[in-house]
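COMPLEX REQUEST
Ligand: adenosine-5'-diphosphate
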Amino acid sequence: MTLRVRLGLLSVSLVMGTLGAAAFAVYVSEGAHLVREAERGRSALLASFAQSCRDAILVQDEMAAVNAAVAVAKVSGVRGAYCLDKNNRVIAHSDGIRGKLSEGSKEAVPNRGSRGERLSRLTRSVEGVAGAKATIVFSEDVLAAGIRESLQGLMKRLSLVLSGALILGIMGSIVLAQSLARPILRILKGTQALAEGRLDHRIQMRRRDELGQLAEGFDAMAVKLGEVDKMKDDFVSNVTHELRSPLGAIESYANMIAEDARAGNLAEVMESVNVVRNNTTRLSRFINNILDLAKIETRTDGLRRERVRGLTLVQETQSFFAAKAREKGIWLEAQGDPRLELWVDPDKLQQVLTNLVSNAFKFTPEGGRITLSAVQEGDRVLLKVEDTGPGIAPKDVGRIFNRFEQVRERVEQLEGPKGTGLGLAIAKGLVEAHGGKIDVHSEIGRGSVFCVSLPVNNEGLCKSS
Ligand code: ADP
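STATUS: Structure written out below.
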């Protein structure tokens, strides 16, 4: 059974159930109302008859009492009306005079009607005449028949209204079922499109309800999936490039080594061996990067913390890159407060700084400046890598710390290796493992400052982090 049919059936049965319940409630309450009205009418009739009895007794006019009783007996459902004295003797009744007011008939007021008709009596005292009573005998069967007739009339009217409401309800239910099923089917088609790999498919449904939010969420998910797919493609092509270029270099230099060795050119052989060594280092660094990231992500990376000076960390990084700075014509300096101490794993922090400084070298043009510093701000030590490169646009700042994220236009301008978008993700993972934070302040055209913020050498603080 399709969703549309199911929704249709559900809403039709809801409509029918609701209308049925409403009709039943109207029927029951109307029945009770009719009974109450009849009782009220009877009481009013009895009150006015008691008044007539009183007037007749006070002026000793028995004819007036009889006339009043006869008039009451003409009311539908009344089987008799009686004025009684304090001894329960009938003074006057609707069938005629039964004696004088002073010596009334002892005839009992009837309890049963003719042919088993059910009767009921209502009696009340006649005010101002001690012991005198007025009684009216009603036929219950006439009352019940009256109520039944009114209810039948009501049922007829109700059935007419209900049939109209039911037809409208069914039509409304069908429209409702359609309008609920249509967006769900659209979302279903969207999921099928995604499952078939059409990641550019969008539902684009403008609704303010939960279905609209679901469609919006679905579209956002499709956009994200598209981005992840694109990231994967970029990553594969960058990884291929990162693997292929050193491997190509190793292969061709190995051939050259073979030729030079045959010709006995030892100097050239040594030069080529150096190139091969550099390329194998580059390859193993790249593979280590990927392994590091996997380790950080699976949290199997234990830190070997020791007390280290912040200045030592930045100075060691500076000496590691000193030759490269000379080669690229970039001013590289390290500065800071020699008293600053950290409780960190020096190798891991060195790796963080190396990743940041490699990026700075990659993007800073010749003649530029890269500054490393270790300073204290409150209860934090800041390790900063500042460059005079092209800077990073605010829209990219938030994402470059994610795995495989690169600023495409920036990377495309690079001449050498394009990178893989892992360096900052690894740096972030390592800094966070130390209980620190990493962020960047950058301005297009002026350069970037990458800032690693760590707790100072308060051992309690550091060890608990
Ligand atoms: P990779 O350098 O391998 O591409 P990273 O995660 O180290 O990966 O860097 C991500 C991206 O952040 C880089 O591709 C680059 O676009 C941008 N980026 C990082 N450092 C700098 C910097 N100092 N100046 C300008 N852009 C930078």
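REMARKS: The first helix runs from residue 3 to 58. Residues 31 and 409 are 83 Å apart (CA to CA).
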